[in-house]
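Worked example 3 (structure in, sequence out).
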């Protein structure tokens, strides 16, 4: 398999490092706007022929197409912020290769009633084009990181093997990670974090369909496993709520994130000041997006690993009926930062996200997962994916709640 990896930030690096140990990956092109960053990751892999480094402006579809054709790739892996999804997605279609991302095309709030009604939903752009992909015989696997991604696979497994009826599927994410020397240092893309946390969260119910609420609504305390413990979680906009109901029979789907009071206060302050805006503003003679300035002022998550301690947990809580009896389970994966740094040299949040696409590369390359059109993770058989998790160093757990 030949892969064009567009975006070599923290998660892109994790994808590359994990792919290096898979001999069926013939070539992986490391493409980034910051060519020096691509070269940095290339040097870490010690194989410049197998991992060539290239400059790419991922907002320019023609540049992505040119690289894909130059290296005759089988798959384009989008490891960029989702604001760049459309040109990367369309480049894959134009070239005629498989596409994969870890976050779907962006939403737009409802113009009149954003805290009750959805406007343009996450993934709408991509799903509207599914028939064209299917007609062309091409596959786009969307939302295939950890959340969305692994969490959706867990939902599929629960529906197929653990429940007869499902009342609610709720993705719950929490951590006890700390970064030494920083009062505020997000361990994931702040651009994406602002996007998903300040947009109106979306919920799905069978009798109501998709609807929205206010950011950070419906707080609940969730007890995370492996020593992380109980943490308050709140509603956040996330792709699982848009993906799961398309393929899994249930009554309700939610996503809640354990952000913490300080994190929420910072995000609210950024919003109050207009620093969460994506649209460029003029500063003297320069046009710049306020959100890009915020991202530039914060430490790069790719270089925080040696300062981080603790664990991060991603998982899917499912409530329903099995053999006539009520049941609740939490399917999860816990990544320890010390272990991730020792084994991969990559911080835990990036590593826990990056291993999932590589498993899917594996399943696609060996004909285990296959399909046409725009498909989410829960449209595939969960068992082959979950069997490989331990082999890749990220075993899953199942906890009765």
């Amino acid at each position: 398999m030949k892969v064009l990896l567009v975006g070599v930030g923290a998660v892109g690096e994790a994808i590359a490092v994990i792919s290096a140990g898979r001999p069926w990956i013939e070539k992986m092109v490391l493409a980034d706007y910051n060519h020096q960053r691509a070269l940095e990751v290339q040097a870490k892999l010690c194989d410049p022929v197998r991992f060539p480094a290239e400059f790419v402006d991922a907002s320019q579809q023609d540049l992505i197409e040119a690289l894909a054709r130059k290296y005759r790739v089988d798959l384009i892996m989008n490891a960029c912020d989702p604001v760049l999804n459309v040109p990367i997605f369309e480049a894959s279609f134009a070239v005629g290769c498989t596409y994969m991302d870890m976050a779907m095309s962006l939403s737009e709030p409802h113009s009149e009633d954003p805290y009750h009604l959805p406007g343009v939903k996450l993934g709408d752009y991509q799903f509207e084009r599914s028939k064209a992909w299917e007609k062309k015989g091409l596959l786009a696997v969307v939302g295939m990181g950890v959340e969305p991604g692994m969490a959706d696979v867990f939902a599929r497994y629960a529906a197929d093997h653990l429940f007869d009826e499902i009342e609610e599927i709720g993705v719950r994410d929490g951590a006890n990670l700390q970064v030494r020397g920083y009062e505020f240092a997000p361990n994931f893309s702040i651009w994406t974090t602002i996007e998903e946390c300040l947009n109106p969260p979306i919920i799905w119910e069978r009798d109501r369909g998709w609807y929205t609420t206010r950011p950070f609504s419906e707080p609940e305390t969730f007890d995370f496993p492996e020593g992380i413990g109980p943490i308050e979680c709140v509603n956040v906009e996330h792709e699982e709520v848009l993906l799961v109901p398309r393929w899994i029979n249930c009554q309700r789907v939610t996503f809640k994130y354990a952000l913490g009071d300080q994190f929420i206060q910072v995000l609210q302050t950024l919003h109050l000041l207009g620093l969460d805006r994506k649209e460029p503003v003029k500063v003297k003679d320069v046009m710049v997006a306020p959100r890009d300035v915020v991202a530039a002022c914060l430490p790069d998550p790719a270089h925080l690993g040696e300062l981080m301690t603790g664990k991060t947990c991603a998982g899917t809580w499912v409530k329903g009926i099995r053999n006539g009896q009520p049941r609740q389970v939490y399917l999860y994966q816990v990544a320890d930062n010390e272990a991730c740094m020792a084994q991969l040299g990559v911080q835990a949040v990036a590593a826990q996200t990056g291993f999932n696409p590589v498993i899917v590369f594996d399943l696609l390359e060996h004909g285990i997962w296959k399909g046409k059109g725009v498909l989410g993770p829960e449209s595939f058989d969960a068992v082959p994916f979950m069997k490989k998790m331990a082999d890749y160093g990220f075993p899953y757990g199942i906890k009765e709640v």
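Notes: The longest helix spans residues 348-365. The mean pLDDT is 96.
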